[in-house]
Design brief:
about 650 residues, alpha/beta, ABC transporter transmembrane region fold, four-stranded antiparallel beta sheet, about 60% helix
Length: about 650
């Protein structure tokens, strides 16, 4: 295990529920700064400001159409239906005209609803497209430290769960909230106009409904939170068991695994059952309650009509308003919770976008160069195969230094946590073309040194130079262009074999790819794949062996043709026979390059120019293979097996 990996396992935030993968699930939480988050969302929606204005207008029209349409019951009853009672041949022209007006009002509401829904779909998808692009683009600028301190599941949940809740809020919850609010306000106003006496009964109804919503919704919310947490635990457990199927079968742990899953699944069932119970009981209770108050309102309205305090038409309209009041209030309470949950997700998204980008104050760049007969270096617009550092001077002139691969550490102190050093006063050098090997037990600081050469992290004190230039003065992209690295954990992308090798140098032609594959001794097995170099790799190269994946990673490094090469346990997954076959190719790859090798297999570092033995972040031995054996120190103990390398 490398130092970086060791630190990750103790530093990152754990998943919810204590099971792997549970952190991917969304757990209900409230936003910390509602006003700021809403303003930020509106700033993204501002690209569609005129469409959004039209949506608001349409939502208002849709709500008002239903409210106004109900009010027409009053003139219909008072001016037409009641007067027509007892008439054999009443004139229905006015009645039909009034119905036509009502139909027109309701039709306008339907059209407005359609327009608002269609525009809101366009606004939500466009807004989320911009947010996702901004998230992904900014993520590419974040330092390695961010990914070391945040689990992949946690980051992915922002692209999936949080974006999905934001989509639901923009496209559904927000319009529904506005519509329900306008409907409640409109109905309340019309009820006040029709009868303030009957309105008192409605106010009592609303108070009772709010108390019930608070009690039932409050108890149900706890079960919904538990349901999400248990769902995450179940999904995480399933994911872990799928990945560990071989281990499960080797140790015959199927009964134990099934028992543990049954327990987790029952907890999810219990929480989901209770959550659904409270969710499903809400509407029937509210519906029956509305019927009770409807009957009470009708009875009181009849008494008022007998006493001449209200007309029949007003009672009809008022009763219909009473029926239409329950649903918007329930929807308001539901959408309010949904919006708060979405705002909390939006905050997490914005937190990622607001993460400080990787700081790069370097001014020295890497350019194509030519060298004249008198040794003067000049920049070239064409690729020459020769590279130089372009160093702008304070005077305005530009100095050029040939890229050779001279790497030096001078009294370097570094710790992932500044209070706990991983490297302590490390000084070393690697001259151009030298092969330097790092050996030592796990946690000694081997991989950390290579991370510092790439400037994945910045040191606390000391200095690291590249061809005499402080790497802090070199632009990170240019520094990393001069270095190729083969990691212990190989990652292959979805694409063909050729595309995966070309990842090391995007403009490499097929001839360069073939040459790199042969150099890494990967050509033979590649040609035996179903489509050879055009074989599509998926799931991180799951259809290849670990050794084959490692060979492709070496080929990817070879095609880059860098002056500095870092091999971090590059042959750890290759058997000794394959290792012997690629040794000649690797030697060709290393010719004329500065090479840093990290290896547990000490046979791979015997021909290194210098072997550096690390222990607890300090260099305790340095020399070539023969010299260190003669010294009979730690390297001698490691090589002869007197001290295990773990």
């Amino acid at each position: 295990m490398t130092n970086t990996t060791k630190r990750i396992s103790t530093g990152q935030r754990g998943p919810q529920g204590g099971h792997p993968g549970a952190g991917n699930q969304r757990v209900k939480e409230n936003p910390k700064n509602v006003r700021k988050t809403i303003q930020r969302i509106l700033s993204y929606i501002s690209d569609y400001r005129w469409q959004f204005v039209i949506v608001i207008i349409c939502l208002i029209l849709s709500s008002l159409s239903s409210v106004v349409g109900i009010y027409f019951l009053k003139p219909l009853v008072n001016d037409y239906i009641v007067p027509f009672i007892g008439h054999e041949n009443p004139d229905l022209s006015g009645f039909i005209s009034m119905l036509a007006v009502m139909a027109g009002i309701y039709l306008s509401g339907v059209v407005a609803s359609y327009i608002s829904a269609r525009l809101m779909l366009n606004i939500s998808t466009g807004t989320l497209r911009r947010i996702r692009v901004e998230m992904f683009t900014h993520m590419q600028t974040l330092p390695i430290k961010y990914f070391d301190t945040h689990s992949h599941g946690e980051i992915m949940s922002r692209y999936t769960n949080d974006v999905d809740t934001l989509r639901e809020m923009i496209s559904m919850s927000l319009p529904q909230f506005i519509t329900s609010m306008m409907t409640v306000v409109g109905v309340f106003v019309m009820m006040t106009v029709l009868s303030w006496r009957l309105l008192l009964i409605v106010v009592l109804q609303i108070l009772v409904m709010l108390v019930l919503i608070r009690q039932i919704g409050g108890r149900g919310a706890g079960f919904f939170i538990k349901q999400q947490r248990n769902l995450g635990a179940v999904n995480g457990y399933i994911e872990e068991m799928i990945e560990g199927q071989k281990v499960i079968k080797v140790f015959s742990h199927e009964p134990k695994v099934k028992s543990a899953f049954a327990e987790l699944n029952y907890e999810l069932f219990s929480a989901a059952s209770n959550a659904s119970t409270f969710a499903n009981v809400m509407m029937p209770i509210m519906g029956n309650l509305s019927y009770m108050f409807y009957a009470l309102t009708a009875a009181v309205g009849g008494i008022l009509a007998i006493n001449g305090l209200i007309d029949i038409g007003s009672i009809g309209s008022f009763l219909q308003y009473t029926r239409n009041l329950t649903m918007p209030i329930v929807q308001l309470s539901q959408q309010f919770n949904t919006i708060l949950s979405a705002l909390a997700g939006a905050e997490r998204i914005f937190n990622l976008i607001d993460e400080p980008s990787e700081i790069d104050e370097g001014t020295v760049t890497l350019v194509n160069a030519t060298i004249s007969t008198d040794g003067e270096i000049a920049e070239s617009v064409e690729r020459t195969g020769l590279w130089a550092w372009k160093d702008p001077q304070k005077s305005g002139a530009e100095a050029y230094h040939q890229l050779k691969g001279d790497v030096r550490f001078e009294h370097v102190n570094f710790g992932y946590d500044p209070e706990k050093l991983v490297l302590n006063n490390v000084s070393l050098y690697a001259k151009p073309g030298q092969k330097i090997a790092f050996v030592g037990s796990t946690g000694a600081g081997k991989t950390t040194i290579t991370n510092l050469i790439n400037r994945f992290y910045d040191i606390q004190s000391g200095r690291i130079t590249f061809d005499g230039i402080n790497i802090r003065d070199i632009r990170k992209d240019d520094l990393r262009r001069s270095i190729s690295m083969v990691l212990q954990d190989t990652h292959l992308f979805t694409g063909t074999v050729s595309e995966n090798i070309r990842y090391g140098k995007l403009d490499a032609d097929q001839e360069a790819i073939l040459r790199a594959a042969k150099l890494a001794n990967a050509d033979f097995f590649i040609r035996h794949l179903p489509q050879g170099y055009d074989t599509v790799l998926t799931a991180d190269g799951a259809n290849l062996s670990q050794g084959q994946r490692q060979l492709l990673a070496i080929a990817r490094a070879a095609v880059k043709d860098p002056p500095v090469l870092i091999l971090d346990e590059a042959t750890s997954s290759i058997d000794t026979r394959t290792e012997a076959l690629i040794e000649k190719g690797m030697n060709k790859l290393m010719e004329g390059r500065t090479v840093f090798v990290i290896a547990h297999r000490l046979s791979t570092v015997r021909n290194a120019k210098a072997i550096i033995v690390l222990e607890n972040g300090e260099i305790i031995e340095r020399g070539d293979h023969n010299y260190l054996l003669q010294e009979q120190g730690r390297y001698y103990q490691l090589y002869t097996g007197l001290f295990e390398l773990v």
